[in-house]
Design a protein that fits this description.
37% helix, 6 strands, alpha/beta, binds iron/sulfur cluster, Rossmann fold, 6-stranded parallel β-sheet, 6 helices
């Protein structure tokens, strides 16, 4: 008696199902990047590039009332190689621009940038030849925090936005988000 041939190749169907529904494929580099982002969100190592009043406002984040620790960002590093997040707070002069660029270039990726305050975002009140009219002309900016100086609440909201963008994997430098004014 001849064997009845199955009309459907179930082994093939199962294989296709596994590939389509159950198996997640990725590149090793993609997986490492995702793991790095996950760890960055919970423990951001910040390089504070503070030059003037906004830098003092940033320092207040390490106070008792507005703790950067709650944001998972209480570790500040003054070594670019060990930092994930560059916070530019204050007026950046043309002479400081190459230094800022070199700090950014020394940071390992994935790396992120917050422009804190009006001076970092646009030169602020200093519309003059010696002041950089926005650090985005030197390095890519991921999040802008408005204000002169920004309130503590605005800085905290900016950090939350930064973490959200890291998790989403938002493309840096493209349509940077600005948190709402009035915070
Ligand atoms: S934005 Fe205002 S507070 Fe911040 S550095 Fe500029 S002048 Fe100072």
């Amino acid at each position: 008696m001849s064997k009845v041939k199955p009309t459907r190749d179930f082994a093939k169907i199962e294989e296709e199902f596994l590939l389509e529904k159950l198996v997640l494929t990725t590149k090793a580099s993609g997986l490492i990047d995702w793991l790095k982002r996950r760890s960055q969100v919970n423990s951001l190592w910040t390089f504070p590039f503070g030059t003037s009043c906004c830098a003092l406002e940033f320092m207040s984040l390490s106070g008792e009332t507005q703790s950067a620790g709650e944001l998972g960002a209480d570790l500040t590093r003054h070594s670019p190689e060990r930092s994930d997040l560059l916070v530019v707070g204050g007026t950046i002069t043309e002479k400081q621009a190459p230094i800022l660029k070199s700090v950014y270039e020394k940071m390992e990726g994935p790396k992120w940038v917050i422009a804190m305050g009006a001076c970092a975002a646009s030169g602020g009140p200093y519309n003059t030849y010696s002041v950089v009219q926005g650090v985005s002309s030197i390095i890519p900016v991921d999040v802008y925090i408005p204000g002169c100086p920004p309130s503590a609440e605005a800085v905290i909201a900016g950090f939350h936005l930064m973490k959200e963008r890291i998790l989403k994997g938002a493309q840096r430098g493209v349509l940077p988000e600005t948190i709402e004014k009035g915070l």
